[in-house]
Amino acid sequence: MRLSLLPVALLGAVTTVTALTIPPYTGTLIKGTQFPSLLDVDLEELAAGLESGLFTSVDLVKAYTARIIEVNSTLHAVTELNPDALAIAATADGLRANGTILGPLHGIPILIKNNIATGDKMNNTAGSFALYGAKQPDSTLAKKLRAAGVVILGKTNLSQWANYRSSNSTNGWSAYGGQVTAAYYPGQDPSGSSSGSGVASSIGLALATLGSETSGSILSPSDVNNLVGIKPTVGLTSRYLVIPISEHQDTVGPMARTVRDAAYLLQTIAGPDPNDNYTSAIPNNGTVPDYLAALKYESFRGARIGVARNVLEIWAKYTDAPVAAAFETAIAQIKAAGATIVDANFTAFEAWQNDNNETLVLNADFLANLKTYLSELDYNPNNVTDLASVNSFTHRFPAEDYPDRDTAVWDGPQGALTQGWDNTDPRFWAAYQANLYFGGEGGILGALERTNTSAVLLPTQLSPSIPALVGSPVVTVPMGFYPANWTVTMNRRRTLVSSGPNVPFGLSFMGAKFSEAELLGYAYAYEQRTMHRNEEEERVCTRDWVERCGEFEDWPRVLRERGTPVRMGWWDEMKEEKGEGGTSKEDMAET
Ligand SMILES: *[C@@H]1O[C@H](CO)[C@@H](O)[C@H](O)[C@H]1NC(C)=O
Ligand SMILES: *[C@@H]1O[C@H](CO)[C@@H](O)[C@H](O)[C@H]1NC(C)=O
Ligand SMILES: *[C@@H]1O[C@H](CO)[C@@H](O)[C@H](O)[C@H]1NC(C)=O
Ligand SMILES: *[C@@H]1O[C@H](CO)[C@@H](O)[C@H](O)[C@H]1NC(C)=O
Ligand SMILES: *[C@@H]1O[C@H](CO)[C@@H](O)[C@H](O)[C@H]1NC(C)=O
Ligand SMILES: *[C@@H]1O[C@H](CO)[C@@H](O)[C@H](O)[C@H]1NC(C)=O
Ligand SMILES: *[C@@H]1O[C@H](CO)[C@@H](O)[C@H](O)[C@H]1NC(C)=O
Ligand SMILES: *[C@@H]1O[C@H](CO)[C@@H](O)[C@H](O)[C@H]1NC(C)=O
Ligand SMILES: *[C@@H]1O[C@H](CO)[C@@H](O)[C@H](O)[C@H]1NC(C)=O
Ligand SMILES: *[C@@H]1O[C@H](CO)[C@@H](O)[C@H](O)[C@H]1NC(C)=O
Ligand SMILES: *[C@@H]1O[C@H](CO)[C@@H](O)[C@H](O)[C@H]1NC(C)=O
Ligand SMILES: CC(=O)N[C@H]1CO[C@H](CO)[C@@H](O)[C@@H]1O
């Protein structure tokens, strides 16, 4: 598969791109100026190139498209390209020529997760054939991107149904999009569920991407793909026409290579939406803060920053030595930058480990919210109107890979259909109150309050669960990489590398609701002092994909044959330990 396909891919690239020749890693001279490397370029460099006429938005669409096609057969990060992207880019170029710039992202290609609806030729499927060919209007976020002049370049692959289907599937697999793999080790588990968004942003298949999170789905793939990820407060960004899991926990946010780029994207998508009443909670009558203005090198000076020490201790077994060591170094750097560091323990964390109310809440929301989403479709080719009909479609449609990938999150012992009651049931309120306690007084919000801190730190791997319960924000920034001699392990199916050399990891800043501006200030101050992202030059497989990594396409098979041991990803392990989900415990992972 490997070498024979390559010339075809390269030929495709050459014919698609006229203004540029491809190798985007090293940069290409255009009119005597270096075209930026798509792997590293940031928004301000792209905007400067567009402004000076070095290249056009049409050139960018061609360059990114060629790159997507070049790596897609290996990584499966992008499920479909927008057939209108070139026309949209040409319109953006025309407006620019006329002196009209719609915003900082004018003419910039962005990829979005395949659960954010667009009213164009693209499908919005959550990776399921049940929704292939369905028609729907633009989501509010798609409208906002268009109004800002963004070129929506395509849709990214994901863990199917945002990982709310199966107890024995894999991160980044969908029936519609195949299996995503990440770029830092051949066959690397991309984590999920915003798997394609993570991989696409990490290797420059667009400037940046949008992902969605219910519990970990932005943070976790950002962690293992060397990215800045923003999991916004639930209600800061509209979920209207985003395929849901839970109205109480779902949120959409940016996945980018720099804090600044992520902030630009958040600025573009945040704000009130009459179609999503959770956005009415945005403070100051819906006025979104200036996130760019918050990016200050001296943000830590005089700040009180907490560390959730007891979480680190209780979950020590999930934190590998290189991650723990990098975390202590990060704390020292933040202290040296002027912050006071204090313990900010999550007092009910131990008790929460034995609580399973989150499953009840997510099941109840999913039953109700999925039904609402399906009722909003303009065309529903398979007549799926609720979870029961999606379940039966999945069982009978061969490409959905049932029963080898089961539907335990729906019809298993603790599944949503088995539960049978939704968020209008009196039992919902009690379950939700338990969540609010474990995330609130007993979790992140209580810790912030008691210790008078403005952010709490954890390695990103440990950070998503508690903020998910209350919908509070988290920002992750690259913190380091596993060492070159790190032992390779595989996922449970032995189809992906769950841990291995050079796999990245991040640092999370967790804050109070709607404190994104402060969190971004800290994230920026940490990023600018450390710039771990840039260490990837030596590591990312795709830098010279053809020479170095293309030949490893079947690497998981080689590893299997060598008897490489199984060790589930840290997130899967901790969820299994906690006992969430259906028959087996991967089903709650990274939703
Ligand atoms: C991605 O690769 C698959 C083959 O693995 C192909 O069917 C699909 O069309 C590709 N998608 C894009 C956007 O190139
Ligand atoms: C640019 O402005 C000119 C003059 O107002 C107008 O004729 C033309 O259609 C505009 N082009 C675009 C692409 O907006
Ligand atoms: C969307 O799905 C339809 C099938 O109904 C398919 O023909 C079309 O190519 C898909 N769109 C894109 C952009 O892949
Ligand atoms: C939003 O509206 C729904 C139904 O109209 C209601 O149940 C819910 O409580 C509202 N949520 C908020 C945060 O106002
Ligand atoms: C809040 O915003 C709405 C809509 O923009 C406006 O009509 C209203 O006057 C504002 N209220 C206050 C108190 O500023
Ligand atoms: C909380 O910390 C801030 C500094 O971050 C300080 O200005 C303030 O006085 C403290 N408040 C209390 C109640 O300790
Ligand atoms: C936080 O938890 C750790 C570990 O359990 C403990 O050693 C420490 O004393 C706690 N800190 C505070 C301020 O309670
Ligand atoms: C939910 O929370 C209540 C109240 O704390 C508790 O009694 C119950 O056991 C919890 N349910 C589950 C499924 O964990
Ligand atoms: C969906 O329902 C419509 C109208 O009832 C019917 O014509 C169509 O055949 C159904 N499609 C499927 C796939 O069941
Ligand atoms: C997944 O679970 C289903 C149902 O228990 C089972 O039939 C199937 O063999 C499992 N697949 C794998 C790969 O474990
Ligand atoms: C990896 O190398 C470090 C020193 O660079 C050494 O301390 C460690 O034991 C090695 N680990 C393995 C698994 O070989
Ligand atoms: C839409 C799309 O690109 N689908 C492809 C995703 O990858 C699988 C293989 O893993 C192909 O079979 C699909 O055609």
From TrEMBL:
Secretion signal, residue range per the UniProt entry: 1-19
Residues annotated as domain Amidase: 59-381
Record's keyword terms, sorted: Signal
Xref: InterPro entries: Amidase_dom, AS_sf
Protein known as: Amidase domain-containing protein
Natural source organism: Cryoendolithus antarcticus
